[in-house]
Amino acid sequence: MATTITTDQDPRGGGSVWNLDEKLDQPMDEEARKLKNTYTEKKLSAVMLLQLAFQSLGVVYGDLGTSPLYVFYNTFPDGIKDPEDLIGALSLIIYSLTLIPLLKYVLIVCRANDNGQGGTFAIYSLLCRHAKLRTIPNEDRSDEELTTYSRSTFREQSFAARTKSWLEGHAFMKNTMLILVLIGSCMVIGDGILTPAISVLSAIGGINVGHPMISNDIVVLVAVLVLAVLFSIQHHGIDKVGWLFAPIVLLWFLIIGGIGIFNIWNYDSSVLKAFSPVYIYRYFRRGKRDSWASLGGIMLSITGTEALFADLSHFPVSSIQLAFTVVVFPCLLLAYSGQAAYLMKNSDRVVGAFYHSIPDCIYWPVFVVATAAAVVASQATISATFSLIKQALALGCFPRVKVVHTSKRFLNQIYIPDVNWILMILCIAVTAGFKNQNQIGNASGAAVVIVMLVTTFLMILVMILVWRCHWILVLIFTVLSLAVECTYFSAVVLKVNQGGWVPLVISIVFFAIMYIWHYGTLRRYEIEMHSKVSMAWVLGLGPSLGLVRVPGVGLVYTELAHGVPRIFSHFITNLPAIHSVVVFVCVKYLPVYTVSEEERFVIKRIGPKEFHIFRCVARYGYKDLHKKDYDFEKKLFDSLIIYVRLDSLMDGCSDSDDEYSLPDQQDEQMSDMHFNGNSSISKVNSSISSVESIVQVSSPLPRTNDIGYSNRPSDQIEIDELLFLNNCRDTGVVHILGNTIIRARRESNFCKRVAVDYVYAFLKKICRENSSMLNVPHESLLNVGQVFYV
């Protein structure tokens, strides 16, 4: 028997755990049993993959699956002039589905996820970790030690390293990246308005086909009622009915695939020749400008592709790929081919072509399933919009709004009341205003193609900086993607006056809101950075800070992760007293999808121990929510107590001959220890003030020697400080918040004055208070106002 001792990392981050592992000499049958167990595990993993692929149908593919309801009508709104045009249009649909959803998104873009998170902001966060692209530089070196902060390293003079240096060296490129991401995000929001409108209206349109005597106004009214109910129940969440989504969508795909096979067999199997790309060339040669304009309708066959990436969250990429290749892709090809076969014999029924092609015996059951599938598709798009707004909010690109978790099991299921009602009003307005699938389709196509172009540009940087692909591969991807998407974009531009202006107007409004809010946030951060207080000035005040230190704890909230904020000097110069313990609290969102509870807090000491001034940085990812958690304060103090104990332990181990220099104004020389939730400590550039900057402390504090440290043993110092902290906490905690107001200077240009003094001020007035976002109790809140001119 051989005995080995190994060390494993404690999953809680508390250090190493000793494991005793006894390895026995096993006979041959034991080896065979191990092989059998390994085979069983692989089999179980395959079963799990199938289960996840099934569940992904209801979340990811609803929007893409309902496109057959309206594609052919939007492609031929004026009727089919030549049956051969159907073959050319079908060939375009087949190769569009192959090139964009299958090759680009399912096989390539889905792999560019940020630890399983998809969407425009997720790619942006991924890029921000590999290059310093964020316009608000609030990251610290310690943030890179997070378990979710993964990034690649570059070889010097490599193509990736040169690209990284070029991006970081130009502020214009950082701003361009931000604008690009905001444009893509605004188009996704526009798609979140248009997809429910066209999906539900097309599905309800089956009533008109089944009963021609029912007017189109009745169809629009029913669609509006369905949309109103859909948006009204969002606050309940989808946790209780979400299990129905996958069966509904799977049934939908099987139905449209089966109907497609029936129509190909029953009407015209010659449509299968559309798999030859030759018919695409013939289609454009024959129709010329009309064929080119019809691309706007064909574009709708790939709507929902961006939602596929945005809704990636809970499913591994392999399950997404399996569901698409086995179920979604073949069923969509059969559905479009079946409709084309039907229209070859019934070219006058292009309006409502899907419903006309359904056999009479199953018409109404299919109508019910189609309506349910349209609702599921709409829900997926609405959820993707909520998720995107939450990410934008965390990165400082959206006004403060209330975010509600609707599920205790799934953190990604959120509800944003203000955004929900805005989406509902706009969606109903589009549905009731246009009353026509064609114009809504033109609008939806414009939004989708612009989002795809933005994703392509971001993917180019991902391939260079993250995957470090050879430049030839990057060039091939770029040329193929832009060739297809720019072709569609040119066709969509032709239909701006036919409904394509809707997403442009919506996106311009949301872009203005997001960019101006980010501009104001950035200016506020820059003001705080440039006006932070010198540590020499703080230490020169002595342990009492030149004031009366009253019992209690003051939590001073600031956006700065370094330095002493101006709000603190403003506070102590206008009030005669300050709390015995002061903690600067910075709630910081990082370009990672989540931060574990064990790594949430970073504690630092500011100045000597007698000052009792600390800094706490609470770190969150863009998927995390600083919700109303009464344990937040408790966790903060628990981390603070652990820090004090470790600090005392390190002092006890340190050399008594250490030399201490006068502190510099830089924050790197403010603290002597650094602590995070993994109980890890690292010695920082330690500096404490000299004799001139230290004043004798009052009786509650231990007596100190001439360099500011106690003559008592370190364990006694620890007990005294811990007792002091607990007594102050029991006395009471006050939350001090800065209310920074920015105004444009008089010499500013007209656009800046409008943006800052009116738009930003209006947004700040109607959005939630910062105290509400931080969940600060109002009974212990103290606001300190400041006005700055930019």
Quick description:
The chain is 55% helix and 11% strand. The protein is an alpha/beta fold and 790 residues long.
Mind explaining what this structure looks like?
- The chain is α/β, with parallel strands linked by helices and 790 residues long.
- It has 2 domains: 79-135 and 168-520, Amino acid/polyamine transporter I (Up-down Bundle); 532-650 and 719-789, no CATH class.
- Helix content is 55%, strand content 11%.
- It contains 27 helices and 12 strands.
- It has helices at residues 28-60, 62-65, 71-75, 83-106, 120-130, 159-168, 171-204, 206-210, 216-232, 245-266, 278-287, 289-293, 295-298, 305-310, 317-345, 353-356, 363-394, 417-434, 437-466, 471-493, 501-530, 535-540, 566-574, 631-653, 714-731, 750-766, 770-773; strands spanning 2-9, 16-23, 404-405, 414-415, 548-557, 577-589, 601-605, 613-620, 673-676, 681-683, 733-743, 781-789.
- The strands form 3 sheets. It has an 8-stranded mixed beta sheet with strand order 10-9-7-8-6-5-11-12, sandwiched between helices.
- Strand 9 and strand 10 (681-683) form a beta hairpin.
- The radius of gyration is 31 Å and the shape is elongated.
- Residues 1-44, 654-675 and 677-712 have low confidence and may be disordered.
